[in-house]
Amino acid sequence: MSELNKIATKILDNGKGILAADESTGTMTKRLQSVNVESTPENRILFRETLFSSKGMTDCIGGVILFDETINQKTNDGEKVSELLSKMGSLAGIKVDTGAKQLAGSPKEKITEGLDGLRERLKEYYKIGARFTKWRGVYNITKDCPSKLSIDSNAHALARYAALVQECNMVPIVEPEVLMDGNHSADECFNKTSVVIKKCFKDLILHKVDLTGVILKPNMILAGTESKNQISNEETAKLTIKCLKESVPNEVPGIAFLSGGQSEVQATENLNLINKFNDTNFIMSYSYGRALQQSALKHWSKDIKDIKGTQMIFDHRAKMCTLAAQGKWSINLENN
Ligand code: 13P
């Protein structure tokens, strides 16, 4: 096994998943404002260290994706964030793209930026403790989207990113997110997600990326949020597995889904069914942002000093997700 493969499988070992706590300052400000908490650097690290020091981290969370601000912050006790995570048994990851911008030539679509100077930034992140990274390409579904231009240019960027990350001995999370927004059918989501993922792997191979040292972070197959033809969770699980089986090369060790706007319980239930039906060699786990943090954030916002209460809520969510990553979750456990 290569070193990168060891890191990738360690992060997703035995039902463990990833906490995506890499909201940019802009996104984190929106999240905090939605629960009436002022978005200051102090409040941002306070919420995050409340989660990072929680008991559930050790059993459930193999890796945490951080934003640049957070990986450079210290906790209330003066500890480096990467050291706190390592003490909790979790690896530090870092979001290295600089965001999705309007795609020239197709202004309704986005291209993710951040390749300039990336090699130098990666070396710095490695020095301060990061062992894996994330880059998110984003695609919307309409009649004509995602366009070939968006599919090709985002795949190219993801491949160049992944090659640079591996050169720096870190595991790249490759995240092509096909959004849930819109009134498209689940079949359209299936077809378009398949094309997007296949193109990503074609480019990863072209750029000589070691696929045994990559984690894919895809969306699940769902009908658009405004579609009248929603599908069952069983259908989502089966279509998601079919899509990944057809689109992802066998060497890839792990897949960690994003939650993408699903509720906490829906994201958990779908992951559980995916694991019940999983007839592939891929580890199928989670890399959730909102579906791990939403309830904890709501509780915390009522009393930001209630560390224990917030941690209990986060621990429960992490435990439910880890059970789902093993196909052992059931709805009855939600209320215990
Ligand atoms: P969500 O689980 O909230 O979609 O966030 C995952 C993520 O990291 C998106 O880039």
Number of domains: 1
Characterize the biggest β-sheet: 8 strands, parallel, barrel
How does CATH name the architecture?
Alpha-Beta Barrel
What CATH first level would be assigned? Alpha Beta
Short précis:
This protein is of the alpha/beta class. It has 13 helices and 10 strands.
Question: How are the SSEs placed, and which strands pair?
Answer:
Layout (H helix, E strand, L loop, with lengths): L2 H9 L5 E5 L3 H10 L6 H12 L3 H5 E6 L1 H4 L9 H7 L3 E5 L4 E4 L2 E7 L5 H10 L2 E10 L8 H20 L3 E8 L7 H21 L8 E2 L16 H15 L6 E4 L6 H14 L5 E6 L1 H13 L4 H18 L12
Parallel strand pairs: 1-2, 1-10, 2-3, 3-6, 6-7, 7-8, 8-9, 9-10
Antiparallel strand pairs: 4-5
Helix pairs in contact: 8-9, 9-10, 10-11, 11-12, 11-13, 12-13
The structure holds 1,3-dihydroxyacetonephosphate (13P).
Describe the structure.
The protein has 336 residues and is an alpha/beta fold. The chain has a single domain (3-335), classed as TIM Barrel, CATH 3.20.20. The chain is built from 13 helices and ten strands. The strands form two sheets. An eight-stranded parallel barrel has the order 1-2-3-6-7-8-9-10, surrounded by eight helices. A two-stranded antiparallel ribbon has the order 4-5. The chain is globular and about 50 Å long. The termini are far apart. The mean pLDDT is 97. It binds 1,3-dihydroxyacetonephosphate. 1,3-dihydroxyacetonephosphate is lined by residues 20, 136, 175, 258-260, 288-291.
